[in-house]
Amino acid sequence: MEFWHNRWNSQQTGWHRAEFNDLLVKHWSSIGATSQGEVLVPLCGKSLDMVWLAEQGHTIVGLDMVKQAVETFFEEQGLEVESTEHDHHTWHVHPPFTLLHGNVFDLKPKTIQADAWYDRAAMIALPLESREAYVAQLRQQTKPGAVGLLITFAYPQEQMQGPPFSLQDEHVFELFSEGFHVECLETRELEDEKERGLSSLSTSVFKIQKN
Questions:
Q1: Which CATH number fits the domain that encloses residue 164?
Q2: How far is CA 2 from the centre of its chain?
Q3: pTM score, whole prediction
């Protein structure tokens, strides 16, 4: 967690995009998320993708461990918020957005019961040893039948020190093998990113349905 605090404090937020994610825009309508349902966005930062999801009629619940990330989102959107403390998390609310600041892994089961979730940069921000706990939280914070859109980032892990950490397609199927149905919607090679010195780099998009 200290790593992410340091990155925000030094304004090293290269993962943030100044436009909506094209893979979200392309695939969201195809996963069958509940119309006007609640969408969980883990490790949300100040992502503009939350704005796009809200524009589709959804209410948004974002989770982040860095207070500055949450506050910056509302500041940049020009929104006044009401903030309250509850179970070791600070809830910042301006409908349709509710952003929780605190340790994602400390969130009590069923604190949130989202209809859907969206992950562009959460799982790849976590090292291998934290991913099972992350999937467990998704299971606990979503309704039966909830559907998610997961966007990954895969490369030979030994060629770069994360984050972002590599998340291979086969690991996605393994992590969500119990209690979920997983479908790969698209895989795309990222030639423009190879200046990082990587021999291969790709992104995949998954539809993940909770049973």
A1: 3.40.50.150
A2: 19
A3: 0.92
